[in-house]
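Quick log. Single chain, no ligands specified.
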Amino acid sequence: MQRNTNGHRLASLGMLLGVSGLAGVLIAGLAIPAAALAGVMSTVVSSSLSELPAQLLIAPQAQRTTVLMANGEPLTQFYDENRIIVELSEIAPIMQTAQIAIEDDRYYSHGALDFRSLAKAVLSYFGSDSGGGGSTLTQQYVKQVLMEAAVKKTDPEERQAALEEAQARTIQRKIMEMRYAIAVEADLDKDKILERYLNIAYYGDGAYGVEAAAHHYFDTTAAELTLAQAAMLAGIVQTPARNPVDDLEGALERRDTVLTRMLTLELITREEYDEASEVPYDPTKVRYVKNGCSGVKYSQMCYLVWRYLMTNEALGNKEQDRADTVRRGGFTIQTYIDPKKQDAAQKAVSDLVASTDPVNSAMVMMEPGTGKIVAAAQNRYEFGIDAAKGETTWLSFATPALGGDQGYQAGSTFKAFTVGAALESGVPPTKIFDAKARINFTGRIFKSCDGPFPSGTFPVSNASRSGVMDMYMAAAQSVNTYFVLLEQLVGICPTVTIADKAGLTLSSPDSTYPNVMSYHGTPSFTLGVIEVSALSMATAFSTFAASGTRCDPVIIASIKDPDDIDIPTQQPNCHQTISEDIANGINLVLSNVFTSGTASGRGLPGRPASGKTGTTDSERAVWLVGYTPNLVGVAMIGVDPNPQYEAFWKSHGRSLSGLRLPVSGTYLTGTGAGDAARIWRAAMIVAIEDYPVQQFTRPPYSILSGRVVTPPKTDGMTEADAVKVLEAAGFYVKKEQVFDESPPNTLIHPISCQPVFGGTCTMNISKGPRPPDPTQKPTEGEEGEEGEEGGG
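-> predicted structure:
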């Protein structure tokens, strides 16, 4: 709508003068002391003319934020006020007409103030308790905006004071409202003010604005409202409690009041009136919009989205500011949540562990190379505070910063980091150790980032195979002593560095151990003794799956404001942190876990998979981290330390081994391969269907053969000295007893060594000369010579 700006402003000036004239009427008619009113007017003039609130012109109405899943379906909404702002062209003309008819039928023919109505209302407003009347639609818009601004204040005292001021029945407030209305009409045309009014008005039962009201009461849009529907909505605004949900009879009466007014004003015909007034209300059309995460199908994923939003500084400096922005901003938030994968993950977890079982269980899926969290499920999947019903307000798969708990030790899954450190140091996967069933490492020298140090008490034993083996077999069979020997060889510092570069983070960092690197002096690191989350493990192993490209985990793809403008959100920040060759070497070594190791038979038909099982001391937590080049899955089950389960665990030794869960009835073996693997395979076999079959990249020969080194010289050394020198250089010494002319138990030089770091040196020990074989007959030549000799 075009308007004459100068003429509009002149009219507004006239309105201001009219307000001053109104003051005279009030003085004369109500006997208000002129001095008192002068003080009020002076305050109003100084504030209302020079300090017009910006929100009156920029339409700050709160509207709901919608969260979408990957397939475009809504996950939930976040809002303080259930509102969807629409343009006037998206509101049915009959709705506009109905609202104007009942609120301000001369709206398009008067200015910001309607002096005809105002004169009638002056005595009523200032002389009685009921008051009211005389306010134009523009004045009502001003009042609504001021109240909206008051509600938005975060400080409770400031909010209450602003609300009281906006609703105060004082001369000062009324005059200020009028002057604000005049100022608004000087800057906005009638259509724009009407549009904003229809968007800000409250239509009862939690519906703000006409679009949300149309959805809520009639399951339709504002553009498609009928006369009967529009009349009912228009009638609700003055008395929001008389809506068809809370007071159907009252709502129908208000509808008919609006229809009568429209008929009187000749805005509708008698036929239209009769037809609309006979339309019954259909309560089955009522639709409620979810707000927040409670009661949402994927409530825990919803909460994870919320936690990501609460760490997004683009939404505000403080968490409370971010929460207000999300609940009032009308954003559209697109996530990576895949319903098919989420259903598969949740079913896999819930089929094994009930929400009220005394354990925590989780399954996380993440795409390597993108950081996308496509699914994350846990046995306590309902968001709420009733623990007896299996509800929870934290995430067993996330870190505390993202709403998680204290995490769990991940056991032997950490051996993957030692594999990486070994390959990076030049140790080939054919590296041999004699991994005895028990080795006491107490007092042995380990290397931290600060240098060598003797270990404290540290006895290590195997729960699986023992003996002489290479890295392939040790990883497949999860041999503890092998990996402590390997960590001792390459150092703890390179091991924690690989973990850190892969993206592993602590669940509960503190001043002593603020990050993964702070464990560089912990020999048991390779055995997974620090507490981590499933999401953190998914991040780290995704780095391996993506050939060394690390991506931060993300669940939000985009945030758009109501004008379709992008709001910054967390990015995966993908970058190479581990060389491709090393990562591909890790993938090759860990593939044996599925082909011939602890997870044998738990793989994915027709697809390659790598990974690592993990079981902690006392079987308090079990894990399987398994992955393909397309998708990483992390499954875990752990003892729930919640006090409500204390009595149960006291009688069951706080171990998962041999435990039958009391609610689900599932029997647990207390191993990653026996328990967590069941969840992993059930979820992954469904989720992986959406990805093409892809092979891991084979590492180059240089990784498989190891770093070339020159073995130390051992010529002339005794056996004991030679062993000491070679082992100190990282070589495995294999002793073989051979026949030789040397005296028995003598070291035979030279010693044969593979010229690679961590290679094998074969040390031949003399058994003395080979004795004659009494069963072997002499040859003919030997017999003839003897005969001739004997005959001579």
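The chain has 27 helices and 29 strands.
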